[in-house]
Amino acid sequence: MNWLQRQIRPEQIRELSLLALIVVAVVFFGSMIDGYYSFRTFNRISSSVAIITVVAVGQTLVVLTRNIDLSVGSIVGFTAYFVGTLIAHHKGLNPFLAVAISIALGAALGVVNGLLVAWGRVPAVVVTLGTLAIYRGVLVDLSGAKTVTTDSLPQWLVNLPTLNVLPIGALDVRALFAAALVIVIIFQFGVTYLSFARRFYAIGSNPEAAQLIGLPMKGIILLAFVISGALAGLAGFMTLARYGNITVEAGRGLELNVVAAVVVGGVNVFGGSGRVTGAMLGAIMIGTLEQSLFRLGISEFWRDALLGLLILLAVASDSVILQRLRLLWARTELKFVQPVEAGAPRS
Amino acid sequence: MNPAALLKRWETLLLAVLIAIVAINVLESRYYLSVGNFINLFQLSIEKSLVALAMALVIIGGDIDLSVASVMGLAACVMAWLFQQGAPLPLAILLALGAGVLAGLNNAFWIAYVGLPSLAVTLAGLIGYRGVARILVEDRAIGGFPLWFNTLGQQALVGPLTAAIVIFLFFFVVFVIVLHGSAFGRLVYVIGSNIQAARYSGVRIGLVKTALFVGSAGVAALAGILYAARLGSVRGDTADGFELDIITTVLLGGVSIFGGKGNLVGVGLSLLVILNLRNGMGLADITGNTQNYVIGGLLILSVLIPNMSLEIRNKWRGRET
Amino acid sequence: MKKHLMSVAAFAVLSLLPQAVSAQVATATPGKAVSMVLLPKFLGILPFDQAHQGAEEAAKELKNPTALQFLGPTPQNSVAGQIEIVTNAATQGVKAIMLSNNSGDQIVPAAKAAQAKGAKMVTWDSPIPSSDGEDVFVAQVDFGDIGKVMADMSLNIIGADGGKFAILSASPDASNQNAWIAAMKTALKDPKYAKLNLVDTVYGNDESEKSYTQAQALVDKYPDLKLIMAPTSVGIVAAAKAMQDEKLCDKVKISGLGLPSEMLAYTKNGCAPQFALWSFIDLGYLAYYTSYMLATDAMKAAEGVKFKAGRMGEYTITKDPTRAKGLRILMGPFTVYNKDNVEAAAK
Questions:
Q1: What is the count of structural domains for chain C?
Q2: Where does a domain end: C252, C277, C302?
């Protein structure tokens, strides 16, 4: 235990406390709902969480640098609609090309954000509030009120959400959730092991110091927004696949869910700390709460009130747990410090 | 202060934009210059404008309150529900204001006492308070308020000004005095710009933040009631989504999202800019969607252009930025 | 004596006049310049675009030199936006406002102010519940009939053995959907439908994503659900895709009100064997004719007034039986779509 405490800091196992909370929630709901412990529940939660998780990964990177990207909902809607319309008119479009276009389009929209924040020195919240309205507005104006309908889409796209990628016995791991997991794993490893990626943390935790040691601030912030946009573009493609029918309102309000996931996931809104896996767990926590409240049979109108309360409790208990852990760590750390004799040789 | 410094200020930029917008409006539409239109211009967004004043203080203090629109809805629904249950309307209004204060105290508890980030707490509040409003009203619409209430909300009270406009002007003066003329206001700036320094100086941060969040929610509750009076009926989705507009107004007014900077003159000018811009576009039959992204673009340009001109000026003088 | 005869004759003639007037069918005088605004619930979905199409057709026939303004709010700002548009239109001295009301009675003050400034307020698709501030409501079908048609379709689909079904509506504040659901509940009281069991009513807010998730939640909560009735064109499509993705189309059917062009695939593959709608194009056309004639004083908005609306024929203004007060023009008819006629209608 002592060795363990030496190796890891409380923040690093923050995800464990969040995971514990998710387990508590699942057990709680399982005791109240019949047939809760089923693969169907797993599918529900994983499918609803997949899209938000992908966007939350990008949002985490942006928040790490002490910024925020509120335009993700509009980017998701824009790419879902644009790519949907494209596919509807070119049914033979290669699936991988479609995904690539979505990502590229999202990245392009992210570049605008990044340029304005990094070079224009406009605060991120101002830029992304503006682009939230601009991207959505342009989409509505260009779309001509048409809806992308499922029967205009090719069969492979319509069937994608039910595609079973990794059947483990009776458990389906569906394509969209698998994609989300892959993204999380890629980015988590990337951020942990690529020294380049540590710059995101540096810029967020101490911008002045980062500047002084010569980090390319502008480039890194631009990169964060490009990645956020690109992942939002991917999420737009996933939205197209999942819902099929895309109106110009697709993705509206998504940014709120994503910020909630990131916040619950322990990413510090002041930058500099937090992990991609945390954001995923945050999304899972909120998704679990939402889906379970649906199942609980509570009146539609009670659900949001309870959801707000539960999110608050999740963030609060997480914070309390973290504080207790820090105290615990501090106490044990004091034991490791050996008293040094004045004049004694350093060993 | 010297004229050059005055020119470089944010408020001057806003004033210039305002004059430009008014000029364009006058040329575009012959209906613009009329008392009736100006009253409408304010009336259509008066409740949001009122909440923007309180939000400015919260943001200057270094926090954010995303739950204001839901508190507006909650207060309106509490009032309507109590009225429908048979309570006399003045009592219902009082209790609705109380509900707003309670919401503010709830926010303040988690933010100031427990220490959770205000983004998280008020995000939960945004969802939760709207939920409570829905519990009360469900899918019904509650109306049938007494004539005096509807008249207060819709007809002119003092000259051509409606009660809501009068209340807004009153609060504007109050907030200007509080923020720029009182010790409390100075504390808000201190907490917003350097919370550590404030803590070490012994500032009662908890109390100040509590006051800010209770004030924000209380004003939101009042705004919700005014909105109900103007519309004559209340639904579960009353004031849904208003927080975005309110925050945009405050940011356009030169208030820094990081806290510690900004003033109410800027916010006032920002209100005038946005209201006149929306009104002008509305009279030119430009839809809400287009209006949104024009305002979005304005928001970005309003920060970008001064930044760019500063860079250009510095480069021209050979200084490094 | 002569005087007496004269007065009797005069009296006789006068007493005949009202009948003569009411037997007259008012017709429109083309070519007058009337400024009119078509104001749907919000912009961006096909039904309202179709209404616009119909209104433009009427405008061309009536040779109105003043162009029709098609203005609408964004979905998430629908109420405040509609109030703003009505207020601004009144400021501009618009002569007629055609409103598909999404704001319940909240629009009454603005509507009354518009009437005071000389504008005719004609509602279509969704009326002002209290009918204050409204001159007349152009109803697509009788709202009571919608309830019966939905009940009949439910019976047809579920079958004589009966079973559970649920309603997926739009926004809980939509006055037309609420009226239709109330009418359906009344219709269900008839013993013919005794075996049909309405278990729940949920709301999708006319959002694809929310409606999809609600449909999934319904089948989770009620595993033996046989039908989801969705009286909203966005909800019905989302529910159909949800059932298709869940591979539940054999067990759970979808019905409600939808556009043939959007429901084509689902009707052909059996997910949505029956659904209904009316022509939004005709509705827009009729609303325009009504407003034009009211604004040019070709007729008054009063009970018993008959008029000819171009290609659609003759209509009569009556009391609205589905509201406490208010006048109505009933358009009709319903069309029930199934796999036999949906393809032709989808073109």
A1: 2
A2: C277
pLDDT at B190: 95
Q: Measure in Å the smallest separation between the Cα of A236 and chain C Cα atoms.
A: 12
- Cβ of B235 within 8 Å of Cβ of C87? The answer is no
In a domain, C347, yes or no: no
At residue A129's C-alpha, the angle toward residues C174 and B270, to 5°, is: 95
pLDDT at A318: 75
pLDDT for res A71: 96
Tell me C67's DSSP state: P
CA dihedral C289, C73, B25, B41 (to 10 degrees): 100
- Cβ atoms of residues B269 and B253 within 8 Å: yes
DSSP C123: E
Report residue B306's pLDDT band, with 50, 70 and 90 as the boundaries. Answer: confident
pLDDT in tens, C77-86: 889 999 999 9
pLDDT per residue as tens digits for the range C206-249: 888 889 989 998 998 888 999 999 999 989 999 999 998 888 99
Residue B129, pLDDT above cutoff 60: yes
| Contact: A259, B292; criterion CB under 8 Å | no
Instruction: Give the domain extent around C85.
Output: 36-141+280-333
The backbone region for A23, taken as left when phi is positive above 0, alpha when psi lies in -120 to 50, beta otherwise, is alpha
Q: Is residue C343 part of a domain?
A: no
Query: Looking at residue A264, what is its pLDDT?
Result: 86
- Whole-complex ipTM: 0.87
B117 contacts on A by Cβ (under 8 Å): 263, 268-270
In a domain, C63, yes or no: yes
* CATH code where residue C230 lies: 3.40.50.2300
User: Between A123, A130, A312, which is nearest B296 by CB?
Assistant: A130
- Contact at CB, B126 and A256, closer than 8 angstroms: yes
What pLDDT band is residue C2 in, cutting at 50, 70 and 90? low
Nearest to C221 by CA among A35, A191, B297, A139: A35
Question: Which residue among C229, C262, C277 closes a domain?
Answer: C277
Q: In chain A, what are the domains?
A: 12-326 (1.10.3470)
β-pairing, C69-70 with C36-39? parallel
Decide: residue C161, CB within 10 A, 0-12 exposed, 13-18 middle, 19+ buried.
exposed
Alpha-carbon gap, residue A114 to A17, rounded angstroms: 33
pLDDT at A319 over 90: no
The minimal CB distance from B289 to the residues C74, C92, C173 is found for C74
Segment 221-250 of chain B within 8 Å of chain A by CB: 236, 244, 247-248
- The sign of the dihedral angle between the CA atoms of B103, B104, B105, B110 is positive
Considering the domain architecture, whether residues C125 and C178 belong to the same structural domain is answered as no
Residues C147 and C232 in one domain: yes
- C303 close to C325: Cβ distance less than 8 angstroms: no
Listed by number, the residues of chain A in 114-133 with a beta carbon closer than 8 Å to a beta carbon of chain B are 116, 120-123, 125-127, 129-133
For residue A13, which phi and psi values (nearest 5 degrees)?
-100, 20
Residues C70 and C128 in one domain: yes
For chain A, the residues whose C-beta falls within 8 A of a C-beta of chain C are 40-41, 44, 48, 140, 143-147, 149-151, 158, 161-162, 239, 242-250, 252-253, 291, 294-295, 297, 300-301
Q: Are residues C153 and C97 in the same domain?
A: no
